[in-house]
Structure formats: structure tokens, C-alpha cells
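A quick aside before the break. I want you to see a complete sequence-to-structure record at least once, exactly as it would be stored in a machine-readable document. Don't worry about memorizing anything.
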Amino acid sequence: MEFLTVLLIVGILSIMIVDKESQIKSLEEENQEFQEENELQKEYIQDLNESIDFQHCHINFVICYIDKIEDKNEKERFAKYLLNNEHFLEHTNGIIDFIQDEKERDLYIKKYNQIIERLECMSWK
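That is the input. The structure line, written in C-alpha cells, reads:
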């Protein structure tokens, strides 16, 4: 009888150990999935940051280009082109939502507004 009791206890403990091992394996798999997802999110954030940096350069380039145009007719034509170019406006304005840092966002909005104001002034002259 004692032998059967010990055997029963050993059997129950074995089942509990196997169950715990499967739980550990399941948690390790979940952890691996989270790590992979985390890496993908890091890559996505890095891509967004590179895109934001590119947009800053893009806006600075456009402002410098506008400043260097001497011919008033050419300035007006260029300004009208950009103001009517939906891709330019959407692409330049759309990046604002992805900027996490408030100071960076404010700086970007300021630069964006500068370029739109300059374009509007030039297109009406």
C-alpha cells in the first residue's frame, strides 16, 4: 500500500514537472516572439527617424533654394508648383505625426510653416 502511495505521489510530481517544463518552453517561445517584435519595432523607429532627418534636410534645401532664386518670375513659378504639388505637401506635412520629441516636432512645424509662408508670398508677387 505504501509503495502504491509513493508511486502515486511520484507520478503526480512527474506530471507537475512535465507541465512546468511545457509552461517554461511556452514562455520562452513567447519571449522570443516579443524580442523579435521588439527588434522590428526598433528598426521601424530607426527608419522613421531617418525619414524625419531626411525631411529636415529636404525643408532646409527648399528654403535655401528659394532664397537663391533671383528671377522673380522663376521664384513665383517654383512657389506655385510646390503649393500645387499634393505629394510635396502631404509628404512634408505627414511626417509631423511621427515625431516623438515635442521640441523636434515644434521645430519641424516651424520650418514647414516657414516654407509654406514663403511659397505663398512668392506665388502672389
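Two observations worth writing down. The helical segments are 2-68, 72-83, 86-94, 102-124. The chain has four helices and no strands. We'll return to this after the break.
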